Amino acid sequence: MVDVYLDEKFVGIVDNPKEFVKLVKEERRNGKLPKTLNINYDVDFSEVAIHVAKGRARRPLIIVENGVPKLKEEHITKLKNGEIDWQYLLDESILEYLDPNEEEDAYIALKSKDVTKEHTHLEISLISILGVITSLVPYANFGQSSRLNRGSKTQKQGLGLYVSNFLVRIDTDVSVMHYPQRPVVKSFMHDVINYEKHPSGQNVTIALMSYGGFNMQDALIINQGSVDRGYARSTYFRPYVVEELRYQGGLIDEIGLPDKDVKAYRVEEDYRFLEDDGIVYPGAKVHADDVVIGKTSPPRFLGELEEFSIAANLRRESSLTVRHGEEGIVDFVVVTENGEGNKLVQVRLRDLRIPEIGDKFASRHGQKGVIGCIVPHADMPFTTSGVVPDLIFSPHSIPSRMTISHLIEIIGGKVGALAGRQIEASTFSAESETDLRKLLLELGFRENGTERMYNGMTGEEFESNIFVGNMYYMKLKHMVANKLHARASGRIQLLTRQPIEGRSKGGGLRLGEMEKDCFVAHGASLLLKERFDSDKTTIYICEECGMLAVHDSMRNKAFCTKCGANIEVTAVELSYAFKLLLDELKSLGVYPQLHLKSKY
Amino acid sequence: MIDEGLLKEYKGKVPEPLLNDFRKHATDFNLNKKQQKEVLDKLLERYMTSKIHPGEAIGVITAESFGEPSTQMTLRTFHLAGVAEANVTLGLPRLIEIFDARKEIKTPMMEIHLKSQPKDDRELERLISMIKEIKLSDILSEISVNILHMYIEVKLNKSRLRDLQIKEEEVLKAIQVSMKNIEVSEKDGLLIIKPKLKEITLPAVYAIKEKVKLAHVKGIEGISQVLPVKRKDELILMAAGSSLKKVLEIDAVDETTTISNDIFEMVRVFGIEAARQTIINESSKVLNDQGLEIDARHIMFISDLMTTTGGIKGVTRSGITGEKESVLARASFETPIVHIINASLSGETDYLNSVVENILINQPVPLGTGLPSLVTSMKKEGGKKK
User: Fold this and answer.
1) What is the distance between the alpha carbons of residues A593 and A581, in angstroms, rounded to a whole number?
2) ipTM confidence
3) Cα–Cα distance between B10 and B39 in angstroms, integer?
4) Closest alpha carbon to A172 in A37, A3, A346, A296
5) pTM for the whole thing?
6) How many helices (H) and strands (E) are present in chain B, helices listed first?
7) pLDDT for the residue B386
8) Structural Rg of chain A based on CA atoms
9) Distance between CA A48 and CA A19 in Å, rounded?
10) How many CB atoms are closer than 10 A to CB A218?
11) How many CB pairs under 8 A join A and B?
12) DSSP secondary structure, B162-193, as one string
């Protein structure tokens, strides 16, 4: 006696659940019950659950009966000839979809040769364990699973041709690579998703070696020659958008060249790229703080100052300027309306990005790193045949991460580049390493992919053979130009008088709690004080009552508001934050008294 | 030959263990008096240089030495199926438990050493049955409420009783002792438990039934499991649950080596020095399990700090951190308002002698380069001392 539930609703009782489930499955395969129905018998809960609702994740499998898969050789040939299709296989109950519950009851064979009498289903293909992006990793079955995850993650960040109509689009924070290439070593998924129409990487010649130590800890050394020839060049786009906002009382922003008498008018030079309509002209080379779109806004508080002001114009300047630390060429200007009918101006800036030290690159195997050094072409190492690598990768990145797929791709890329063809590297069904080695030998190279190399700076031959080959490398969207940040002095917060936060505002870099501990642990007491001097102030203390005194710097006189002028007032240098704390204590009703004593 | 007279000169200057080491090894090299003096001078010099310098920030260094590796500690605890020491709190949770000085730890354990190794399995089993707590629910085969007479009938599992060497009368007595308001008798091989209440209602009887199931019959309360473990050549008993006092009452238990992992239990039974050692042992056990190497002196420093008052103080706002002298230092840790209000009520003074306060007001901290200061006060103009 077992309860039966249809979409979590109780519908009845069956005596023999196993028979019942079997019967239902048969009827479904015979076409009497919908193919979208799934059933399973849960022994622990002693219930039979039938599901027909929408939104269940289901996956197709080949049905196995009495140890024989229902998908036969003849079906495959017919499929290839186009005589039958997927739907036919479903209709004929050769394939069926299982939901996670029914999967619990199924015994699924991974490969057709593994099928036994007990099996109920057969996996269509081994690669179905991988997703779309993960299937793009070549030789994935030779890598560590966590590296596969990372490899797929970095593929999403690779620069390439993200859309083909990028010229007429306004997207935030996008780049387009200049000469993307289709990968020499590819998997079937590259064809499925039309990857070769929008690739996001380039095939490079790579050497696994150390060269002056500039590629330690995952850094990369790249060839200045390759850079000059256009390797990893990209264009960065950034839109600047301004809207004419409407305010209460019928007031409105105005896009246009601001008058000289508006409030907070910048220097005239800042507006030099604007045309009469207040918008930059395409082709202008603008730098940080240059105005891109001129705009004025109505006064913040209506009626304020009106009686006293002589100036007729009360409008405020509110132009949009190029972001801090950025530059570019005005690429595209759009003037339209937004949904509410307000004037909307969009300006797109374009910036050429040539690879520089700090730009991030990655292969497809979770091996990512930043450029540590760009070596002149003449100084790069070269092989006996005169080949100079584009990129030098550190061999220390391999053993602990066990990305064997990375190494096989290098051999595969080398064979592909020399033979002038693409290498099939789909997971589980790739061209085997042994074959590749054989081919490499036939092409007149050492079968393990190593070559004799010479030091480009001294001309000396290296003692050991160097592993050289070709592989697909991606430039990732994280570029130093967007991240570089340093500051000496700048804006401070009103309340605490400490530097403001954030790169875009030109803020400071915080010396945090743990960094502070580091200074203390080293006993670098005075250096620590200096680092925290950002908000130091001089305050005057009344020695009588221990509270803040007033110092009149004009007359150079000091007095205490409580104790009068005939007392001793001492200047003390301390952090403004502490003064703030004292103020807060006073507001709490606590009387913080400062007793001063000379340190010396 | 070792010149004892020479050694005496160095006594007090060099720690005793180092001198003992010297005594042990010096004979191997057959050194004459002059050479011995040379070695001892070198030893003294080395010892002096390895001493901690004044102004060294040992507290911060200790904190960092603990903090940095423990960020790498995985929450993954190894579940060793079938191994006796399984199911112990490990990793970060246990470390927090130790240093916070939690009164109730998650998995109290005892390591019971025996005076002599048990001769056979029977003796071992007898010993285990003396320690492991047996509740009524462990030895009954049936328990039911007789609605007609409003009492509880318990049928005991005879073979279990025989295995555990418990007599039925013992069970009867134990239940009677462990609970008030009941009367236990025997009838036809059944235990009859009659509630002694003014008004006997069915829910009340059921409530008693549930309570009676947990009645203590034999062994030591709170010890749910006892497992024999072979450690080197010695057979020891690992007990889940901690009740040192009662375990030590058993004759066969060696009271000189039996320990618990409950720090508070250790203070109660063995005193503060034992507790200090327990903190050291337990925390280094956790760290070793995780494969982290922290110098023993850091661990010792913390456990010294925790036990220096004679009781156990955790590294918390109610423990050693809450006992800092400076108001500002206490307030900059947790619950600042409480500290400030209390300080203002009693008119406390902060002499700004320590690190945190000085960072707060942006003054050099009295450590390292900030420690030295002038001894003589500066002369004021006119030659008068200020």
Assistant:
1) 12
2) 0.77
3) 11
4) A346
5) 0.75
6) 17, 10
7) 41
8) 35
9) 11
10) 16
11) 83
12) HHHT--HHHHHHHHHHH-SSEEEEEETTEEEE
CA A522 – CA A529 distance, rounded (Å): 13
Q: Is residue B385 very low, low, confident or very high in pLDDT (cuts 50, 70, 90)?
A: very low
Which residues of A are annotated as catalytic? 218
CB nearest to A526's CB, from B370, B373, B386? B370
CA distance A43 to chain B (A): 26
The CATH number linked to A324 is: 2.40.50.150
d(CA A590, CA B142): 69
| A242 and A221 share one domain | no
- Please count the structural domains in chain A: 4
* DSSP letter string, A267-328: -GGGGTTB-TTSBBPTT-EE-TT-EEE-EEE--SSTTTTTTT---S--PEE--EEPPTT--E
d(CA A124, CA A122): 6
The domains of chain B are located at 9-49, 134-218, 324-370
**Does B71 reach chain A within 8 Å, measured CB to CB?**
no
Locate A16 and state its tokens: 């023999």
- Say which residues have a Cβ less than 8 Å from residue B101's Cβ, sequence separation at least 6: B263, B264, B306, B312, B313, B314, B315, B316, B319
Give the whole-angstrom CA distance, residue A272 versus residue A280.
9
Query: Looking at residue B369, what DSSP letter applies?
Result: G
How far apart CA B334 and CA B350 sit, in angstroms, is 18
Using 70 as the pLDDT threshold, list the residues of chain A that sit under it: 301-313, 600
> Do A425 and A141 meet the contact criterion of CB atoms below 8 Å apart?
no
Domain-embedded: residue A480: no
Of B123, B126, B129, B121, nearest to B226 (Cα)?
B129
Domain identity same for A213 and A276: no
Same domain, A219 and A363: yes
Are A13 and A123 within one domain?
A: yes
Residues A282 and A384 in one domain: no
Residues of chain B with Cβ-Cβ distance to A536 below 8 Å are 362
CATH 1.10.150.390 fits B324-370, yes or no: yes
pLDDT of residue A303: 57
